[in-house]
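FIELD: query
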Amino acid sequence: MQSSVLKPLAGKRIVVTRPKQQARALSEKLQELGAATVEIPSIEIMPPIGTDQLDAALRQLERYDWVVFTSVHGVEAVHSRLSALELPLSFPPKPMIAAIGPATATALRRAGRSPDYVPEEFLSEKIVHGLGEMRGKLVLLPRADIASKKLPILLRERGAVVDEISVYRTVVPSDLTSESVHALFQSGVNLVTFTSPSTVRSLARVVGTDQLRNLLKGVKVACIGPVTLEAAKELGIDVEVVAMTHTIDALVEAIVNEIGTVRET
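FIELD: result
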């Protein structure tokens, strides 16, 4: 008897909520494993309203003891401004550079500087304690306009002086509507992926938290990392799949472990 093995995600329909610029990478990995993917970006990354504060900080980078990056978008935004200001694209030896996870660390290496510190667990508490003695240290924190205040609060509690600067904005895409989201779920979905707290919160903002919970009944939810998981739980959303390593590969592996099938005939 001849045997055939289906790809592990064959017959599964998976929603990707990442920003448009990043959605394709996740979709392709899922498609390679047999899934049908639907990209419905729930956030859009936009430049900040102004760059004066960031420009001033970048012109005096040597003043800082640490620059702490918490996202790939933050790295890209800073790199873009360094280029626009015709400043060296690789950071000077001082300050020290921290990245909250492997994807952010990879973005830094591509920009010309390896991070000095990446925590083993990608949480605010872990990155703060891994930086060492912080009393009197000057820290540059380039991040999203809607980023959680937990990290700067923890840094200041340890005695650091923090320059928290919004280097990009996270907004709801203009074409994301309650009607389009409802139509998507009514057409049949097996699993929805969330890769940041803002992807969850934005979708809830568009359709309403109660409606989102209703739409997700019978649909599995997959999150990257404990911070995204926490954001989903705060909205009352049940999460079945969590990739504790903050990478797309880890998310895909966790999805396969949860809903993947291999059939032999």
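FIELD: remark
The chain has two domains: 13-43+174-259, 47-171.
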